[in-house]
Amino acid sequence: MAEKKIMLGNEAIARGAYEAGVKVSAAYPGTPSTEISENIVKYKEIYAEWSPNEKVAMEVAIGASVSGVRAMASMKHVGVNVASDPLYTASYTGVNGGLVLVAADDPGLYSSQNEQDTRCVARAAQVPVLEPSDSQEAKDFMKFAFEISEKYDTPVILRTTTRLSHSQGTVVLEEREEVPDKVYERNIGKYVMMPAMAKNRHVYVEKRMEAMAEDGCGFPVNRAEYKDSSIGFITSGIPYQYVKEVFPDASVLKLGMVHPLPRKLIEEFASKVERLYIFEELEPVIEEQVKSWGIQAEGKEIFTRQGEYSANMLRRALLEESAEAEAPAKVPARPPILCPGCPHRSVFSVLNKLKIHAAGDIGCYTLGAVAPLSVIDTTICMGASISSLHGMEKARGKEFVKDWVAVIGDSTFMHTGVNSLMNMVYNQGTGTVMIVDNSTTGMTGHQDHAATGKTLKGDVVPAISIYKFCKAIGIEHVVEVNAFDLKELEKVIREETARDEVSVIITKSPCVLLKGNVFPDKCVPLPEKCKKCGACLRPGCPALTKKEDGTVAIDETMCNGCGLCMQLCPFGAIEKQPR
Amino acid sequence: MTTKSIMIVGVGGQGTLLTSRILGGITSAAGYDVKLSEVHGMAQRGGSVVTFVRYGDQVREPIVEEGQADLLIAFERLEALRYAHFLKKDGVLIINDWRIDPITVVTGAAEYPENIIEELRRKHKVFTVNAMEEALKLGNAKAFNVIVLGMAARHMDFTKEDWLKIIEQTVPPKTAEINRQAFLAGYGDC
Known about the structure:
The complex is a heterodimer. Chain A is α/β, with parallel strands linked by helices. In chain A, helix 10 (237-246) crosses helix 13 and helix 14 packs across helix 18 (486-498). By secondary structure, chain B is of the alpha/beta class. In chain B, helix 5 (131-138) packs across helix 8 (176-187).
């Protein structure tokens, strides 16, 4: 009997890549895509890397494809924006070995800064999109993606969403297919996209997409399930499961390829059902095309463009009922927070004390925007802290940014922060950049990067020195400081923000969740010395609570022993004790 | 069999993922179709987290919705209260009698509700355990979630032996013995 395994959607995508004979995989971590690479690395047949950003990852995959092997890149939806430059033109060049981009969308914004829909990018780039609806399909569609990539000479996007990527389901495993390397032949008409060649390739792209729309009517991933003809749904991905849950007897056209759309198949389906609904999360990508063909259907008039769908949402919308449930209790919110012992809390406590504004970036430290730390003023995208601070200065003058810093993590700095810092030097900014270096990509679950000295495969390599990099591009004032040394931090921040030239403060202390990173002691309150001033509570460490008598308790199971509270106590009422 | 729905709720970092993997393992080994849905990324940083487990002959929807859960396993009191309305009328609620203040309470913006368990008992079948205390008795605070799982196992249709086997297969070998003891502590000797 074939081996069955329960697999996370992302694990199944990795397995599909393995079975499809993929040889090269490149990625930058980002929720909900990260576990794809973390599972691919288990297959020794695949070269896998963390690239510094998604554009680089995409280009690595393109190069591998041109050379003749099956290759892939994976990233979250906003990463596709970074990779879109190579993607749009790879659509023109097409492939040699199969090329797949796995793009992970995040309807419901579980861990993202926006809710964009990758299918819109794919339409603009004229690249086909497959969309699985469970772990088994995630694996199967990866293999199909490589097949059609080579058959139609096109990169293919496999679109997943948070719910699919982070749900587990049963998967039947198959053997890896060893795909022979394709011959590499110089072909500048196909691989050198200067105007004369690109004009010709654009013609090809149009023909390709027409052919795929036609052939797509017969692709097994596009499936009409005819049942009750009074109600029909066109749907794809996870929303398909909600339709089957609520309307097991309805007719359903399940689209496995959501771009280009199989027009004839859709027209035939529409003609056979009385009332047609289009049930797709986020943007009305299918709906607008279907309606443009003169087909009557209902979609976003009823179903929202925002957030994640569910079966209850469908019940409420179409059946005007939902499962019997009581009203939710009114309870205090529990938003995510920095961990006990997090070095970012220490840095932010100083910025907060000095009343300094921060242009923020993407990472755990974004949590410094909210109370009680309240330091971060802006968060846009990877790398934007440094460049947006520079923009403020150029708009309002250098005095305006005297009480500002840019705050960016080490991984985000390596991603795109480097470009922004070069710009600040080149265009004579005077801002202060704080690189909060915790030696890892923290938020996504601790991935290595070019400045950690370790690769995705676990090889130890020379770590790129952020300090030397800053020096090398001509910044004179680059200061490294222990993230938990409050006095030194305060002194350095005062000095560097006062300067009339670019300066960089690198605060150093590894992420407290990194394996092997344990403070030797624990923090213990001494109630007899406590004056109930609350200074230790101010940075909002979750291990500390105020007791009824006003003194402070420290939860031993949560405290990581960083000593921030101890430093903040003016009365010596917290001390470190060995664990 | 009609699809059964279980939820595991707690605070990011409490180890809800391990518990859901054990549940996935045992339901799958019994031959059921099973789907689990988890939360990764930002919410794991001390936020409210929820994991869904559904199993049966054929499972469609990977999430559990309001009014659908047969069993709700809460690793913390406030989280039990937050998600109690996901329970079916006759659903069972297992609560780890433990308090972790959310940042909104720490900063004084909100108050931690009093008498949560008494409130919940009025509407639901509630079983409680102070698993943290029990785990410390076993010598490892981290084993508390398997104690809670042991208590929940009493309300599911798998044998003690099945559970112990799956736990041994799921947890790191180093922690197999402590987790075995933890499960039995929650399950009760018999």
